[in-house]
Amino acid sequence: MSLSEISLGNLVKKQFFYKLNAYTGVFSSMVLIQVIAIFFSFGAVSSGSGRFGVQINVDYHSADTLIIFTMLWAFINAVTIITKKYRDDDFAFVTNRVSNNVSNMLFLVAASFIGGVTAILSTFLIRVISYFVLRDHSVIGYDVMYSVQEIFSGLLVVFLYLLLFCALGYLAGTISQLHKSFVVLLPVVVMGCLIMIVIYGSEVLLHVIEFYSKETNTLLFVGKTVITSFLLFAGAIILSNRLEVRK
Amino acid sequence: MMGINVFGIIIIQLVFLLLLIGAVVFIIKKGIGKTNKSKTTYWILGGYLCLLLLSVGVYFVTPALHGQVKTEEIENTSMPNFDRFIYEGEPVDISNDYKVKQWDFDYNDEEIYLRYSGDDQNSLPVRLDKKENDSKIEAVYYQTPSYYNGINISSYTDPVSVNKNGDELFIELPETAYLEFTSYKKEFPFKQLTDERFLENDDLLFEDADEIFGNQFLYLRIPKNIKVNADSGIDIYEDGIIE
Predict the structure, then answer these.
(1) pTM summary value
(2) What distances in angstroms separate CA B218 from CA A84, B88, B170, one per listed residue?
(3) Using the beta-carbon criterion (under 8 Å), do B182 and A44 form an inter-chain contact?
(4) Together in a domain, B147 and B101
(5) Which residues of chain B lie closer than 8 angstroms to A36, CB-CB?
């Protein structure tokens, strides 16, 4: 029996701040991934068309690639922080599975927020570089300026998508801890899903994606992503309780 | 053959995706392995954030980066379609707004030859009306403007020119102008909750340009006693019927 008792809230708080300080590598890898994605973004999508006497070619720049890279980062980041190496860090504390999971989730929420902010701000960096460095001076097009409302709305959307990917990664990572065979099976299932979408155009999977990506109502979008993330995290907690104390 | 190509492209996309995932895993594992309070990491993240914030400031003070402001809704239907004058033979009654240029030539011969000159990648339909014998040939070039993403691009192109040399009337087609522009596409998170047209676009990442290409034709009025001959590439319509 311990002489001093510590509440779950305090324990989670301590673990959360510990992880925020200790896992700084998560953020340096995010910076590296986003910088690479910025370079990818300059491989502009070209659109050409023309009629009588005129042929137009427009190079479109956008940070969509960077946002998708950041989603990948969120997913893999969540898988990685529950690998054995990082789980062992938690044993530096008097801890239990709940406090460990909750602090991980809070860390992933914070990482999603930071990832979301940097992804949204990097859209401006891409435009500035394309204009001043690449000398793309003949900018054509209307409605390309971001309004303040769009910026905050974009931040909310990216943050929630990143949270969703983190939750998905966290569940996938937890499943892979249950049995060694899942380490091989999970990537196979993920690749299978990708192949079904890309080659066979799987309607079911597309509907699942569109359930989130085609939701334009703010409240419904927040509801869908937050509830799904919560369910995925809850699933991860339930599964992690089946793990041995220190596997 | 087509199937193989499509399949090949899909395989390349999947391989690229795998490589991408592999690269991200590698970078994260390398980065996350450093579970120390490395000051370098804070400097990297801090420096990156400063750079991003600086770019936001630069963006808002550089109007050229904002694109053009759309001042009026340009509807394709608000401009006349010349098809009815060319192919249906309706009397040519078109606003002077769309009359780009007019030429009048004195002509007394019995025959005239219409020829193209200039960039033969372009072609221009000709509406031909016969009129009383007044020894004058009238040519009028009509064109509606073209818009690309809200910008009038007609000014970037040379108009058609008509000139006479002996018994030949040359329709000088403009050299094709090749225009290169840069544009920015708002990323899907910015639009998902704010853009009313978000769902109209099937593809969330890419969208079609907002383009309206104008139409044009040459209106020729020639005395009825003059026989008109033309090069095979020139489409001449008289009373809506191709000659």
Answers:
(1) 0.75
(2) 78, 15, 12
(3) yes
(4) yes
(5) 23
